[in-house]
Amino acid sequence: MGMEGIGARVARKEDRRFITGAGRYVDDMVVPGMKHAVFVRSPHAHAEIKKIDVKKAKAMPGVVDVLVGKQLKSDGIGNLICGWMIHSKDGSPMKMGAWSPLAVDRVRYVGDAVAIVVADTKGQARDAAEAVEVSYKELKAVTEAVDALKKGAPQLHPEAEGNLIYDWEIGDAKATDAAIAKAAHVTKMHIVNNRLVPNAMEPRAALGHYDKAEDHYTCWTTSQNPHVARLVMSAFYNVAPENKLRVIAPDVGGGFGSKIYIYPEEIVCLWASKKTGVPVKWVADRTESFLSDAHGRDHVTEVQLAFDKDNRMTALKVDTIANLGAYMSLFSSSVPTYLYATLLSGQYVIPAIHANVRTVYTNTAPVDAYRGAGRPEATYLLERVVETAARELGVAPAELRRKNFVTSFPYQTPVIMCYDAGDYAASLDAAMKAADYAGFAKRREEAKKRGKLRGIGMSNYIEACGIAPSAAVGSLGAGVGLWESAEVRVNAVGTIEVLTGSHSHGQGHETTFSQLVAGRFGVPIESVSIVHGDTDKVQMGMGTYGSRSGAVGMSAIVKALDKVEAKAKKIAAHLLEADEGDIVIENGALKVAGTDKNVPWFQMALAAYTAHNLPAGMEPGLKEGAFYDPSNFTFPAGCYICEVEVDPDTGHTDIVQFVAADDFGNIINPMIVEGQVHGGIAQGIGQALLEGCKYDASGQLLTASYMDYTMPRAGDLPSFKVSTSNTPCPSNPLGIKGCGEAGAIGSPPAVINAITDAIGNNDLTMPATPQKVWAALQAAKKH
Amino acid sequence: MYSVNYHRAASVADAVKKVKAGDGKFLAGGMTLIPTMKSRLAAPSDVVDITRIASLSGITVSGKTVTIGATTTHAEVATNAKLAKVCPALCSLASHIGDPHVRHKGTIGGSISNNDPAADYPSAMLALGATIVTNKRQIPADKFFKGLFETALKEDEMVTEVTFTAPAKAGYAKFPNPASRYAVTGVFVAKGKDGVRAAVTGAGDNGVFRSKEVEAALAKKFDAASLDGVKVSAKGLMGDIHATPEYRANLVVVMAKRAVAAANG
Amino acid sequence: MSEVTINVNGRTVTKTVEDRTLLVHFLREELGLTGTHVGCDTSQCGSCVVHVDGKAVKSCTMLAAQASGSSVVTIEGLANGAELHPVQAAFKEHHGLQCGFCTPGMIMAAVDMINRHPEGLDEATVRAELEGNICRCTGYHNIVKAVLAASAAMGKASKGKAKAA
After folding, report:
1. Which of A413, A492, B185, C163 is 20 to 30 A removed from B258 (C-alpha atoms)?
2. Sheet order of strands, A352-361 included
3. Is residue A471 domain-resident?
4. Would you say residue C158 lies in a domain?
């Protein structure tokens, strides 16, 4: 391939607009006559709504209207749904409580939307929102999942007795228990996976515009998947039929999962636009984002890992309680089940695995997928317990892992997944070499002289990207298919537009997707344009999450390119009076192999459109579409090694070295892949060291701004040492695996394993704040 | 933000008059006032911008006497060469307030008038035994800081400058809140002709205070080792999601040691 | 309401706005300069950083009225026509951005940082100086690289070896 094809470090095409301030995000959109919305939100975690009086607010300056949930209901707007059906082990379906886009008679978390105020300016809307009088009857609240399951706990939804959404299991309980019973050693742990707030830097926003003359709606929204938004808003929320609803996700400032879901605000803005006759824009402020964006993680787990006398793993038993918040968000049910428990085998041969998962309602913000989604929880659990087992067994952590690695493929785990390819020892070796693992003891001694406690920890993760195939995920309860679409339009002058159902919100698709096309046809990368994020332009797509755009989105493009190539070759063969099978595409021309006869790419394209001289029976034009449904997940895996220094006086942890060795299969643009890994690691270190979402017992969010929720800053992180190996993925045409989430999945256990190694106390929860580390050090001194 | 009227004052007298005319507030850098107004936790009828009053800004060093105008920014304090010669600890303190953009706007007068319990400057003023000069009077730092966001200032009273005698040695160390970067605990120590003063910010549940334990230990010898084994009581210290009183008590001693080490170079 | 006159990116503009109008909203809504972003409410994320009278400030924490009479440079005013500012060019070359939302503030902060450090920058200084800018995408790795490269490109001596990996 050329300098701009697959494997090249091509600088990003999209950058120019971002570095010059010309990016176009939802908040930058202006529609004539547009007004501004502010939501009235519940200040209580749990309360009955007795009365909403909007009279005063409506009379305030600049106010267009104030709308409440009863009006929304009477207009037939539907409740929000969770799109993945999970059945409990007794066969009963999950218990989905009603979630009205505007609460009608009850609020269930601080931030639950109660009314929308539309006014000339945002300031006026906020003034009026304060004048909306809502009388609440406060109810007792519960915020911790474990507490919500207790007898006598406040009940959130009549549909879910005991706040239990489902009680689900996977694996063989009997075999697992039997193996544990006769194990030579069992490591037991209580593991908490801390609740996080995704915090894409662009707050969520929506602009709803109802065009009365056309009876047509347009919604600009901060979405990772505009087509899914349109589908759900049409099929379930009765906003408008699909042909009357256009959803546009323009430049979107990061997502990390939090912008997958269809939230109340975009539904209400669309409905309010029709109701008021004006375009309605809402932009979250940061505290509103903290309160109402879907949060991530929040698991509490008991785990047992059993070994035989040779230190081979024999069984893993997991009992998890997952907090899903006040309502079931769009894909919330799948995260602690199929995206979590199916990865519990990790990189290891574990003959028996059983996991039980209970999900629970609490008076907190809804919880759904956040970068990694289930896989970080599985990895943290497993890599903490493996590291702990190594310490208990007195063997080197790397060697215990190595001994238990899966080494022959395909490997069928006891928990659904069938790993297709991998070389885990290669990643482990690469990471240990890059980290100079052998030299650690010396570094620890040197640090001790400076009064610092140095520790090292590793994590060997596996994850699954590009959830598929559609029929399989459908059988597991998914409400949607997980294919992707692409359309390749070769214009009459030979330039190429690629329409994709993937959505870029930082991943650089405009560059990598262009590289794929430019490399394939030998055309300049500038002659390729990527079109995405608009349901009027792209027919259908499933969007971007779960590291699927490479493995699934690009594979769809490959399929469409195959069709384009076939037709282009036919045209060229006809023009060159050659055999179709002899045509090759090189450097922007279609050539007769072994001769100098050729037709330039643009001439072939022109011929397709002039249609003066096409093969008999051929349709004019050159445009092909494809839908691609993968045959399997992809399985990126790798080894991360973290080295820390703890200041024993303050408990402050410095990450002094962080090494990542990932196997992502084939790579389109190494620069972009490295960037994805860097960002993922930063979020993983954030989870391990800094970020913890905290509610108080009454359900007030204590970490509702950057004053209290610690975002990783440049000074908190080192530069990372990243490398990749490239075992091609056999289940897609490009052999690529996906790299968007690995960093966030693999890094938290490496960090905590390193800190606990440094301080000699394994009893430490995330985030390992200075105070917690200091307290753990004090506790260790007492023992 | 609620509606507000903005004024620019031409002089101190003009500023005071404009503040008194309504429920007004003096506005200097605005690094606390504006966020507080944005979150609707403060709702002054008027804000009176005092940053264009030339007499309020600037640093003069005359022998050991340092005078800093109220609207002097943190960036100016951090980078002032004359101040760095006589009291580098204060430059260092200012260079760690907030972030570079905040330091371009935030002022010393605004910081001490606001008296945030986790702000850096109050500890320096107290440890340096500074005098806070207002449009009405001179107030010793010991009598100026009254508790959480409370000072001796009357409603129509404005800090115009602070002045102090540069001590023989001084140092500041803080442990920043990982999220907000305010001080979880910050300790300013100064060894002057009246002995050792050590003031603690961020830790007290009633704002900045002098630590008797630290001062007593350092009075014997102004050396970090003097603080070995010194215990500070957690009583009266703040507890929140970031730090318990016990943890803060530990930090008082640790930061005091580091401040002394910095002072001794 | 107040009449506010500001020189923005070399052009003097006068508008009558509510006194409570923040500088960032003045730029975005009155002037259509939407490159300056708002990412938080508490003056921490730095997405809104612009230069006022040559210094980086957070335009979300300043009234437009406070800036009346001042000169403001925003991300839109940084490039010299089609020619990118060296910091912009370095962010592109070193992949110092992903979603692009924090980028304008990050670049304005970087320009200010480089201006204040004529002696050159090292990695530790760059990381410390980025305290007022939050990025959620890049893990800062390539931002640090870009700032160091830009500092060097702008003719500053590079203090120490720029070990941004």
Report:
1. C163
2. A164-171, A352-361, A313-325, A299-307, A185-193
3. no
4. no
